[in-house]
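User: C-alpha cells for this complex, please. No commentary.
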Amino acid sequence: MESLICNGVTWINIEPPTEKETEYLAQKFPFHPLDLDDTLSRIQRPKIDEYKDYLFLVFNFPWYRKDDRVLASSQLSVFIGRDYIVTLHKGDLKPLVKLFRECQIDKESLKEYLGQGSSFLLYRILDRLVDYCLPILNKVGGNIEDVEDNIFSDRQQGAIREISRLRRDIIVFRRIIWPMRAVIGSLEPRVRRFTGKDLEVYFGDTVDHVDKIWDGLDEYKEIIEGLSDTYNSLVSNRTNEVVRTLTIIATILLPVTVIASIYGMNIPLPFQDSDHSLLFVFLIMLAVIGGILFFLRRLRVI
Amino acid sequence: MESLICNGVTWINIEPPTEKETEYLAQKFPFHPLDLDDTLSRIQRPKIDEYKDYLFLVFNFPWYRKDDRVLASSQLSVFIGRDYIVTLHKGDLKPLVKLFRECQIDKESLKEYLGQGSSFLLYRILDRLVDYCLPILNKVGGNIEDVEDNIFSDRQQGAIREISRLRRDIIVFRRIIWPMRAVIGSLEPRVRRFTGKDLEVYFGDTVDHVDKIWDGLDEYKEIIEGLSDTYNSLVSNRTNEVVRTLTIIATILLPVTVIASIYGMNIPLPFQDSDHSLLFVFLIMLAVIGGILFFLRRLRVI
Amino acid sequence: MESLICNGVTWINIEPPTEKETEYLAQKFPFHPLDLDDTLSRIQRPKIDEYKDYLFLVFNFPWYRKDDRVLASSQLSVFIGRDYIVTLHKGDLKPLVKLFRECQIDKESLKEYLGQGSSFLLYRILDRLVDYCLPILNKVGGNIEDVEDNIFSDRQQGAIREISRLRRDIIVFRRIIWPMRAVIGSLEPRVRRFTGKDLEVYFGDTVDHVDKIWDGLDEYKEIIEGLSDTYNSLVSNRTNEVVRTLTIIATILLPVTVIASIYGMNIPLPFQDSDHSLLFVFLIMLAVIGGILFFLRRLRVI
Amino acid sequence: MESLICNGVTWINIEPPTEKETEYLAQKFPFHPLDLDDTLSRIQRPKIDEYKDYLFLVFNFPWYRKDDRVLASSQLSVFIGRDYIVTLHKGDLKPLVKLFRECQIDKESLKEYLGQGSSFLLYRILDRLVDYCLPILNKVGGNIEDVEDNIFSDRQQGAIREISRLRRDIIVFRRIIWPMRAVIGSLEPRVRRFTGKDLEVYFGDTVDHVDKIWDGLDEYKEIIEGLSDTYNSLVSNRTNEVVRTLTIIATILLPVTVIASIYGMNIPLPFQDSDHSLLFVFLIMLAVIGGILFFLRRLRVI
Amino acid sequence: MESLICNGVTWINIEPPTEKETEYLAQKFPFHPLDLDDTLSRIQRPKIDEYKDYLFLVFNFPWYRKDDRVLASSQLSVFIGRDYIVTLHKGDLKPLVKLFRECQIDKESLKEYLGQGSSFLLYRILDRLVDYCLPILNKVGGNIEDVEDNIFSDRQQGAIREISRLRRDIIVFRRIIWPMRAVIGSLEPRVRRFTGKDLEVYFGDTVDHVDKIWDGLDEYKEIIEGLSDTYNSLVSNRTNEVVRTLTIIATILLPVTVIASIYGMNIPLPFQDSDHSLLFVFLIMLAVIGGILFFLRRLRVI
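Assistant:
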C-alpha cells in the first residue's frame, strides 16, 4: 500500500489487495463490507455502486499473459470520494503502475494529475488504461493480417491453431469491453459532485475511445469468422485437387498394370510370338487409357 | 414437511411436495389454487405472482444429474408473506437442503437467517443457490479447456462427444439463467413491504452474480462454437494430409509395379538379355517416378 | 354448424366453415365482411380485430398431420361478443372438438364452461389448445433425444433425414407460437368488458404456458443445430479414420507387390538362384514397409 | 401517360416515366424537384415524403424476371393529393397495369375504384400489388418442397444450384418487403386527410398481408438454410460411404494380388511343386484377407 | 491549406492536416484542443461534438486503395461555424478534392455552393461524398455476380480468394456506413442555427441515400455468405463425384489384375493348357467385376 498527497487529494494504491489492506480501509473509510469483499474476490463485473459519500467502481482491462500468450482480464477496483481515490489491482495493468511511479518521482506530474481533484485523476487513470487497449487491439489486427496472408500461401496446421487462438482472444476482449461501455458512459454525472467542474468533454472522449475499440473488435470478429470459413474452403478445395490427381494417376497407371499382368499369365496369348508383340501391347494400353480419360472428361470429373 | 420458527418468522420446507402437503397449505394459508398446482406440476418458468398478502415465486436452478452426467434444471417454489416463507422443492438443490439442516442444528444460524425477517431469509436462500451456480460454471469452463488441449494433441471421437455434451449443458444452463435475471432483478421492491428494511444492496449483489454467470455462459457459448469449428478444420486438414500422403506413396510405388509388370510379360522385351538389364529397368522406373513427381509439384498438389 | 346455449351464453361451433355458414353469420351478427372472408381464406396470421360489439380473433395451433408425419398449422377463428362465442375451424384441433362434444353430452360440463360468461369460455378453449401443444413439444424433445443417441452409435442416412425433419418441425412450431404470444398476452383487457370479472390470473397462466412452450422450442432449436454440427463432425471424423486405414493398408501391401513384381520380371535378378532367395526377398519387403511406416509416423500421418 | 377521371378524382398512370413526363408534372403540380428526380433514378428505398398538399410515396414490389428466372424489384412512385393520384412505374407490375386497363374499359370498375376518393384508390392499388406477392411466395415455397424431395432421392449438382437460387430469391424478397412494412403501416393516418373517411380497417388488412408475407419469408429463410446444411451432410455421408466401400474392396483384392505376385516370382517357392499348390495359395490368401477384415472390424472402420 | 471566400462564407480546406495547420487553426478559431488532436490522430469514429460557436464533425468514407485492391476508410474532419467551414482530410476522397477545385476555378460553382451559407455547403459536400459510395457499392455488387457465375462454371482457387476479399470489403464498408447513419441523421437540427433555413428535405435526402447503401450492403453480406456456402457444397459434391469415379475404376480394373496375377503364378493352374484358356480367364474376370458392381449398386454406392 502506497499513497500520494497533493492539493488535499490523496491517492492510495494497493497492489495487490489482501485482507490486511481491506481491514485497514474498513477502519479508515466508510466503505460497505460487500464492496471490500468484492475487491478481493475473483474477477467481478464492471459496475458502479453509488453511496452517499463515495462511489465504488469495478473495471476490467485486458492484458497479454506472457507465459501462455493468452489475452486475460485484470480487475481494477476504485473507491472515489471528494478528496481521495483508492485503487486496488494485482499489478498486471502496466499503464496504471507506470502512472503511479511517475507521480511518485516527478513533482510536476503529481501536481498535474492530482491537483485538479479526484474526478480528474479518475479520468486520467481510465484514459491511460483505455488507450493501452489500442496497441493490444492493433496486435490482434496485425495477427489477423498475418493469418490472412498465410492461409493463401501455406497449408500447415499452424494456421488453424492461430485462427482458434485469435478467435478466443477476440471473444475474451469483447467480454471485457462490452460491460465497460455502459459503466464509463454513465460515470461522468456521478463523479461531477466530487469536483464541481464539468468533465463531460473528457469522459466523452474516453467513451469515444471505448466505442472505437468495440467497433474494431466487432470488425475483427467478423473477419476472423470469415477467415475460418475461407480456410475450410481452401482445405476442401485442396483435398479435392489431390483426390482428382490421384484419380488421374490411377487411371493412367492401372490399365498399364492390367494389360501387363494379362500378358504375364502363364497361358498362351495372342500375338505373343509376333515380332511386334511389345508394340501391340503398348497400343492396347494406350487405347484403354484413352478410353477411360475420354469417359472421365465426358463425366466432367477431370 | 418440516418447519422452523424464530422471532415470529416461520420457515416451512417441503421436500418433495405432494398433494397431501398442498392440501395442508391450502387450509392454513390464503394461497391461490393455480399456484399450489404449479408447485406440483413439471418444471415451470421462473415468475413472480403478486397477491395482496403474499408473493408466489418460482425459480429454476441448475444441478448435475450424477447418473447420466447431464446438467438439469430443478424447480424451487416459494411462498413468502410478512411472517412466513414456504419453500417447495425436490431435494436436488444441495445448498438449500444444507442451509435448512444448518438452521435446525445450530441456534446461532437460525437466529442469523430467520431473525431479520422473511425478505432477508429469501435473500440468503437465493444468494446461496446463485453462488452454487459458480462452481458448476467453473466446471464447464474447466471442461472446455480440457477439450481445447485435447483437440490439438489427439484425434479420438471422444472430443466430438465432449464438445456436443458441453454445448448441450451450456444451452440448458443459459435457458435456466436467462428468465431468472428478470425475476431476481425485479424482486427487491416487491418483498420490501414484508420487511420495511432497504435490502437493495443485498439483492443488487445477487443480481450482479446472476449477470456474471450469464456473461460467463455467453463467453463459453462462443468459445465452444469456435472449438467446434476448429475441430472440424483440424479433421479436414488431417484428411487432406492423409490423402496427400496416400497420393505420394501411390505415385512412387505404382510406376515401379507398372514397369515390373511390363518386364514380367511373357513376350520378348528390349534389353531383356543385356547384362545390365536390371539397372536399365531401374533407370526407367526412376525416370517415370521423377516425371510424375515433377508434374505434381508444378500443379502444386504436393 | 352446431350450437350450445347455457345461462344466456351461446357457443356456435362451425366445422369446417364454408360460404353458406358465413352468409348465415352475416345475417345474424354484425360481423365485418373482411373478417368473414378471413375465416374462409388460407391460414391467416394470429390477430385481434376490435369492434364496438365484438372481437374477431385468429389463432393458429400446431397439429401432427398423420399422412406425412409433418407438423402443420391449423387456423381457429373466433368471434366473441357479450353473450356469444363463434368458433370456426377445420376440425384438425382435437382438444376443441372434444371439448364441444363434452359440453353436448354432459350437462355438468356445459354449465361449468358456458355458465361463467363468454370470456371465461374463451379462456377454457385457449387453455385446452395451449396445453395440447405440450405433448407435441415433448414428442419433439423425445425425438431429439433418440437422434442424439443414434448418431453416436450408428451411421445410417436415417439420422440426417430425422434431423432435417425435426429442424423443419421446430421452425414451423416456432412460427406458430411466436405471433400467438403477443395476441394471447394482450387479450385479457379486451375481453374483460364482456364479463366484468377479472380474469387476469387465468389468462396470465395461459401466457405463462405459451412462454414456456416458446422457451422449450428455443432450447430445442439450439440443440438440434448443435446435433447437426455434431453429426457432420462425426462423419468427417469417420471419413478421416477410413482414409487413414486405407493408407496404412496400401502402405503395407503395395511394397510387397512391388518387390514381388520385380522378382517376377523375366530378366536375370540378383540372389535369384540362391538357396535363401525367398528369405532374402522377404527381408527387402520388410525393410521397405518399415521405412515407409517410419516415414509416415514422423510426418504424424499415422 | 394516360389518365382517367371519375367523380372529380384523376388517376394519371405513367409507364415508363421519362424526363418529358416529369417536366409536364412539374408544370401542372406543385411537386418538389427532388421527388421528380427520384421517380427517374434507379431503385429507391420505400418512403413517405409528406408535403402540405400532397404525399410522395415510393414502393418496391417483387416480380419474376422471365429471361434469367430471377426475382427482381420494381419501383412504384406515387403522388397522391386530394383529387388526384399519379402512378409512375416501368410496367413490370402486372396487377397495376391490369387494374388500369380494367378501369379504362369498364365503367363499373372505374366508378368502384375512383368513386370513393384518392385514398381508397391507393388502398385498392396497394392491395392488388401486395396480394400479387402471395403467388410469388407460394412459388418459392413450392420450389423449396421440390428441392427437399430431390436431395433425399438424387445427387446431381442441380440441387446446389437450385438451393443457391432460392436463397438469393428469398434474400431479395425479404429486402423488398422489410422496408415496406414500416411504410404501409404508417400510411393510413397520413392519407386520411384526403378522404375524411376512416380507412383503418382496409389499410390494416393490407398490413396484415404484408406481415404474413414477411412471416412466410422468415420461415422459408430458415428452412432453406436448414436444407443447405442437410444437403452438405448428405454429401459428406455419401463420400464416407464410398470411401469405406473402396477400402473394403481394396482390402479384399489387394492381398490376393500380393500373394499371387509372390507366387509369380521367378525364384524357388515352397509348395510350388505340390499337387495342391493352388489350394495352398488360396488358403494363404483367405487367411490374409480374414486377418485384415478382423482387424478393421475391431477398429470399427467397417 | 487553401481557402475560398464568397458571400461572407469561408471554406478552408487542409489536405493533409499536420501540426503546423492545427496550430494555425488554434490561433484563429476557438476550437477545443481535443478536437484538433482528433484531426491528426488515426481514424476516429464518426461523431458530432457540439460547442457554443461551432460544431466539430468526424466522418469516415470508403475508398479503394489501388495498390492492394482493398477497400479502406478515410477520415474527414469538419469544423463548421456561422460563416466558415474547415475541412481536413488526407486527399483520398476524390469527390471532395474535385469539388474544391471546381469552386476555385469556376465563379458560378463558387457562388452556387458557398452562397447559401455554411450549412448548405456542408450538405453539398456530404451529398457528393455519399453519392460517391454508390459506384463503390455497385462495383462490389458486380464482383459478387462475377463470382456467382464463376463458381458454377469453374473450380480454381481464385473463387475462394475472391469470395474472401469481397467478404472483407463488405465488412469494412458496413463498419464505415453503420456509425455514419446516426451522425448524418441527427445533423440537420444542429446545423440549422448557422443558416436559419430549413434544410430538412436536403439532409433527409442524404439520409435516404445512406440508408439505401446500408440496405445494399446488408443484402450483399447475406448473398456473399450464401455464395460461400454454395461454393463449399460444390467442392464437397465434386470430391464425392471424383471419389465415386475412382471407386468404380478400381472396381473394374482391380479384379482383372487379381485374376491375371493368379494366372501368372509359377504353379500349375486349371485350364492352363486348354485351347480356350484365355477366354476362360476373361469369363472369370467378367464374373468377378459383375459381382462387385451388382453388390455396389445394391448398397446404393454407385
